[in-house]
Input
Amino acid sequence: MGKHIVIVDDQPDIVAITKTRLEANGYQVSSTMGARAAQDILRFKPDLILMDVMMPGADGFAVVRELKRYPDVSKVPIIIFSGKPKEAMLDLFGPEGIAGYISKPCEPEELLAQIKKTLGS
Output
């Protein structure tokens, strides 16, 4: 089985399309959102996280801060997956540390290239 990726997003259509693309390329994929995201990620123990920023319940900033408190997942690479401008996201997440940024909607090739680069595969 391939590397495990968790999609943290509150838009079911984005999750479904992204999950289908990733699974077709050999990745194991789970999804979660909002206030339960950090606990789900602790349970899933993924190799990579695709993190939306704007979600009800708990935004991406809150989830990233919470994950950094847990040694089991604090080093898991996080790629911001957002419709917000890249520069703004990199500035906001700089202190939290992120592995990359993908703008939504994205081209499938861009998504896969960023994931492969981040995972070193």
